[in-house]
Amino acid sequence: MGKDVVRREVRRGWEQTSAHYAIDRPQVFQRFADRLVALLNWSPGQRALDVGAGTGVIALRAAQQVGSQGQVIGVDCAWAMADQARTATPGQWRNVSFAQMDAEFLGLPDKSFDLVVCAFSLFQFVDMGRALSEMHRVLKPGGQVGLSNWGPEFFTPVASMQRDLFREFGLRPLLTNPVTFKHDQMRALMDAADLAEVELIQDHVELWFEKPEEIWEWNAAMGPFPIMLEQQLTPDQRRELERRYIEMLIPLLTPQGIACTFHPLYTLARK
Predict the structure, then answer these.
(1) pTM above 0.85, yes or no
(2) N or C: which end of the chain has fewer CB within 10 A?
(3) Residues 152, 263: contact at Cβ < 8 Å?
(4) β pairing state of 196-202 and 264-270
(5) pLDDT at 25
(6) Gap between the Cα atoms of 222 and 235, Å rounded
């Protein structure tokens, strides 16, 4: 599949799943958004860009930080995601707006933002290097970039279990980018984009899902995943995969639910 085709299919996946993604039942992205925003250097009146904004979790927090004299723009490849963000807070924030835009082709002026933020979206961009170069281009000199990604041992113990099951069903990823990043990988990406003063912070966070079905639904809300299922499995195979997936997780269930360990990796850098 060519890059343009993959971009189109990734966009289609996020268009389809936007409503489910917004639910975010275990509040995974809400929790990590607070942490990323807290790590950045904010001042009233700044202009900030949220790339891969999704339903606006970061953008709305950024709007509070820059105040009424500042401006925040959130962009996402999927129209439906931008619409979710707009309708979530009608009229609440006058200093934030959302638009459909591809991270690799930002239709925004050079040197126009004080901060660029990208939360758990970098690996969703077909050409990560190009996306980072675009972030660098729109940053003012001295401006700050803040990224959140998944570090090694992400989603333990479910990640390795589901990987084995997906391989059994012959599922191939729509994107070839890594889902998790080691520190040296992130430094190399930052260096290639000419971003300096790189700082890496990795956390260890345990989150609880109520039941196996909730974990399946969380996966199913990740845009490329339903496209993979649609393209590579028959309807009967998809139903069987879901049944096997839920059955696989039942032994992990406790009275409190299912514990999953996440290792978010935050990257801060400057132009």
Answers:
(1) yes
(2) N
(3) yes
(4) antiparallel
(5) 56
(6) 19
CA dihedral 69, 83, 1, 186 (to 10 degrees): 30
Does residue 34 contact residue 61 with C-beta atoms inside 8 Å? yes
**What are 240's two structure tokens?**
């069987």
Q: Which residue from 197, 206, 91, 190 is spatially nearest to 147, judged by alpha carbons?
A: 190
- Integer Cα distance of 264 and 178 in angstroms: 14
- Residues with Cβ within 8 Å of 155's Cβ and at least 6 positions away in sequence, in order, are 260, 261, 262
Domains of the chain: 3-152+175-208+262-270 (3.40.50.150)
C-alpha count within 13 angstroms, C-beta hemisphere, residue 142 = 2
Count Cβ atoms within 10 A of the Cβ of residue 178 and give its class: 0-12 exposed, 13-18 middle, 19 or more buried: middle
**Percentage of residues in the chain with pLDDT exceeding 90?**
74
Measured CA to CA, the distance from residue 1 to residue 11 in angstroms comes to: 15
- Would you give the DSSP letter of residue 78? -
Q: How many CA atoms lie within 13 A of 3 on its CB side?
A: 8
- CA atoms of 196 and 198, how far apart (whole Å): 5
Q: Which residue has tokens 């189109």?
A: 8
